[in-house]
Amino acid sequence: MEISSRVRPIPTLPIPLEAMSWRNLNVFRHNQRGPDFYLECLRYAQFLWLRELPARAILCLDRALGADLNGSECCLDEFPLPYAALAEMLKESPQEVFIGNPRVHFQHYADRLGPPRKEVRKWRAWACWAITRTICPDLPADPKHDVIEPKTEAIDENLKTLGHPNESQLWKSALK
Length: 176
Hints:
Layout: H1 23-26, H2 35-50, H3 54-65, H4 75-78, H5 83-92, H6 102-112, H7 118-135, H8 152-162, H9 167-175
Helix pairs in contact: 2-3, 5-7, 5-9, 6-7, 7-8, 8-9
């Protein structure tokens, strides 16, 4: 499997053992999106990252954050929710590769989510938005999108209330 020499693997993501494509996630289209889906999203994110496709890799992290997990799954011990992975991608993306505007992406995503698990997914998107604002402060918001951007305290409180045990601490570690 060919990988870029300009980026190193993200340590908090699993290494894919073979080439991957959108088909790896498409098999979960009608299946439950639990731990297997979560891990496959993380593998595919790493696969895309190693091919210098950070914008697409970040979208895979979104999908992983939307997996139907209750926080007790064994996979989370080795591969916690990918807040740290997002932070590393934002910091380490080569400047000449397309990353889009993750701030706008997360802003739109948080404001437009529907079921299932709408509330927890919304606050995870705002958590990723906050990470993006901290690491990439020059990325502009979408001035045409009328949305109230939450304070850090609101994100923290909602992750504590709706998220997994210790999710708030994971997020705050990535935010620093």
